[in-house]
Amino acid sequence: MIVTIIGLGLIGGSMALDLKNRGFASKIIGVDNNLNHINVAKLSNIIDDSANMEDAVKESDLIIIATPIDATRKLLPLVLNLTKGSIKVVTDVGSTKAGLAQTVKDHQNRKQYVASHPMAGTEFSGPMAAISRLFDYKNAIICDQEESSEFALSLVKQMYETLNMKMIFMDSQQHDVSAAYVSHMSHISSYVLSLSVLEKEKDEKRILNLASGGFASTVRLAKSSADMWIPIFEQNSLYILEVIDTYLEKLNDFKSSIQDNNKEKLQELISQANEIQKIL
């Protein structure tokens, strides 16, 4: 199995490590516009070789697009064009899916594409952030499975099984709604908290001294790359804006309760929030 990974960041690099080490791929070819990423990936043994996109796709059985979502929307039709007359399989790891589905819904090679989203990551980016076992025991979402051929679907399932991931099946729109609430809003909340603290507390040493585990874990995602997240916010803006409205509503509930010294209301809000532990 020869696998091409387009985009050698955290996700693409981490996939490359485990797919090779666990015997799924005999060779990993890397494609990236950033020459430093290519060099780091080679020196770190993340990839075996590099090539331009056309040559890499020509040589490969499976192509994984692991670029920011705006780049993925441009690349996906081009990669599918290159698979014409073959049984090559294409998948992606993007955080939004409805836009991608719309982009290729009428493509002649649509059956060779499997829309997927491995729900794993860290706040770091680039090939230096790639780590083994990143995906172990986490969920991989496969969207619109009925639009993919049985062969393509089987191969991508095998890939995620190699990564020790549990597969969940959704349609692309349902995925984007859920991702807005569970994933995308978490990043916005982290960015907002970080901005609030930086605006109100100008003493960096004091922030460091008072930062507890709770603060550190809450703002961890604020270190995430703008290049990755701005396209996600753009592509999923419809559902994200709905979540922000709900978030502001709940934030105002807390504000008014604290303002009015309404302990009963605060007790009710916190008790309702505690219910999340039953799910997690």
Offer a quick outline of the entry.
The chain has 280 residues and is of the alpha/beta class. It is built from 13 helices and eight strands. The chain has two domains: 169 residues, Rossmann fold; 105 residues, 6-phosphogluconate dehydrogenase C-terminal like domain (6-phosphogluconate dehydrogenase C-terminal fold, Orthogonal Bundle).
Structure description:
With 280 residues, this protein is α/β, with parallel strands linked by helices. It folds into 2 domains: 2-170, 3-Layer(aba) Sandwich (Rossmann fold); 175-279, 6-phosphogluconate dehydrogenase C-terminal like domain (6-phosphogluconate dehydrogenase C-terminal fold, Orthogonal Bundle), CATH 1.10.3660.10. It is built from 13 helices and 8 strands. It has helices spanning 10-21, 35-43, 53-59, 69-82, 98-104, 150-162, 172-200, 204-210, 213-219, 226-235, 237-259, 263-274, 276-279, and strands at 2-6, 27-31, 49-50, 62-65, 89-92, 113-118, 139-143, 166-170. An 8-stranded mixed beta sheet has the order 3-2-1-4-5-6-7-8, sandwiched between helices. Helix 4 runs parallel beside helix 5 (98-104). The model has no long low-confidence stretch (mean pLDDT 94).
